[in-house]
Specification:
The complex is a heterodimer of chains A (164) and B (253).
Chain A lengths: L1 H11 L8 E7 L7 H7 L8 E6 L3 H10 L4 H8 L12 H5 L7 E5 L16 E4 L18 H14 L3
Parallel strand pairs in A: 1-2
Antiparallel strand pairs in A: 3-4
Helix pairs in contact in A: 1-6
Chain B lengths: L14 H12 L4 E12 L2 E14 L2 E12 L6 E8 L2 E6 L4 E5 L10 H10 L2 H6 L1 E2 L3 E5 L2 E10 L2 E7 L9 E3 L8 E12 L14 E3 L11 E2 L5 H9 L5 E6 L3
Parallel strand pairs in B: 6-13
Antiparallel strand pairs in B: 1-2, 1-12, 2-3, 3-4, 4-5, 5-6, 7-9, 8-9, 9-10, 10-11
Classes of the chains: A alpha+beta (164), B mainly beta (253).
Chain lengths: 164, 253
């Protein structure tokens, strides 16, 4: 939610370009996630430039996982030297045992980016994540930010795509 | 107020505390009274409160009274805030602003600004507050220390709250399951008193206070569910060709 509020406060509030389009996808990752949580969370945004989706089957998260180098949770468990069962009840079972799904990550695209039908997600011009590479081994540490640094980075990246 | 005042931060578990705990077990949830100091982070703002909270639940009807001294960060003035509420009737008095506000729902009071207003649209309604359930406290031991434990069930989310009553003042509270994702985060609090309460403040509007209108409810945002396909997301992306675009992925809780 901190990242979502960061997008609201450091992207939408600072960029008054009416052309900007923000697509927000609420993905069921944690065991507590679901339609009620997505509905509550959607109140964070009140901006006509935002379209919001709920992704209970994590299709968008999975499509973007490779872009950020997100590992599967079994690899996270191995890196942390803990049993995978240590995450029981924390994540959805399908997240625990299935392929990785990205979340808490914001991708920036310029006007040239294209995503034709049948093709993979285009490469973003930049991205920032709150997923700690110390835990999520494989995530590029250059893109990791947390707290005030995350908000500052969102602001910085917004300037690169937001019109005058 | 008929409150059993226990300076829990100052004393170890005593027979009085044990008796209090037992009395809740016998007749739970009639009312409880808490005095404490709270540090709240709401969005990126920080409030420090000293509050006296009385909560009452009789036959499923919630009544709440809060008398708080608030020290906000930034340029906002310190103030005394009094909140009284029951389903369908909420009132808030702000001494610094000398304003009173009355609303059908707590979020209509709008005191904490738009962020809380948004969060409260679905979580802080009279209905959900009335359904919330704080179980009777239990006296337990945690890592060799006496603690007072509550279980709460608010909006279907169960949490365990543990008061370290045996420590030196101020006693600390920690949540076993932190309020991750909530708009309001309780950074810490200390409990200075806890007990049964029989009466609640009603806070009549003082002379000289002006009335502030209640805030209208927020419209619920449009939220489309992806049925196992990313086609709608791709279509929106392609529809925005030539424009700067963001794709933001979040876990909702």
């Amino acid at each position: 939610m901190r990242v979502a509020r960061g997008v609201r406060d450091r992207v939408l509030a600072l960029c008054d370009d009416p052309e900007l389009e923000v697509t927000v996808v609420w993905i069921d990752i944690l065991a507590s996630d679901g339609a009620p949580g997505a509905r509550r969370a959607s109140f964070v945004f009140d901006d006509p430039r935002v379209a919001q989706f709920h992704d209970p089957r994590r299709v968008v998260g999975r499509a973007m996982a490779a872009t950020i180098g997100l590992p599967a949770l079994r690899d996270v468990a191995r890196a942390l030297a803990v049993e995978l069962s240590a995450f029981d009840g924390v994540y959805h079972d399908d997240v625990l045992h299935g392929p990785p799904a990205a979340f808490d990550t914001v991708f920036f695209f310029d006007g040239d980016a294209s995503w034709p039908q049948g093709e993979g997600v285009p490469k973003p011009t930049n991205w920032v994540t709150q997923l700690d590479p110390g835990v999520y081994v494989g995530v590029d540490p250059n893109h990791f930010r947390f707290g005030p640094a995350l908000r500052a980075r969102l602001e910085e990246l917004t300037r690169t795509i937001c019109g005058p | 107020m008929l409150a059993v005042a226990l300076a829990l931060g100052c004393v170890p578990v005593t027979p009085e505390l044990e008796r209090l705990v037992s009395s809740f077990a016998e007749a739970p949830l009639l009312a409880f009274h808490v005095e404490g100091r709270f540090a709240l982070s709401v969005e990126e703002h920080f409030w420090e409160l000293e509050a006296d909270v009385v909560r009452r639940l009789d036959e499923g009807v919630l009544t709440l009274a809060v008398d708080a001294r608030v020290r906000p960060d930034g340029a906002q003035k310190a103030t005394r805030v009094r909140l009284a509420g029951r389903p369908g009737a909420w009132r808030l008095l702000d001494d610094a602003a000398r304003t009173a506000c009355e609303a059908d729902e707590p979020w209509g009071l709008g005191w904490l600004g738009s962020a809380l207003h948004a969060a409260a649209g679905t979580t802080l309604s009279s209905a959900t507050l009335a359904r919330s359930d704080f179980g009777a406290p239990r006296s337990e031991e945690l890592a060799g220390r006496p603690v007072l434990t509550f279980e709460s069930d608010v909006h279907g989310t169960r949490r365990t709250w543990t008061f370290d009553v045996g420590s030196a003042t101020p006693s600390r509270l920690r949540t076993v399951e932190p309020t991750k994702g909530a708009e309001i985060l309780i950074s810490w609090w200390s409990l200075t008193g806890f007990g049964r309460a029989a009466t609640l403040g009603t806070w009549p509007i003082p002379a000289g206070f002006s009335t502030r209108p209640a805030r209208p409810p927020l419209a619920e945002p449009a939220l489309a569910t992806l049925q196992g396909t990313l086609a709608p997301v791709r279509a929106r992306f392609q529809g925005g060709a030539g424009k700067p675009r963001l794709l933001a992925l979040f876990a909702p809780t």
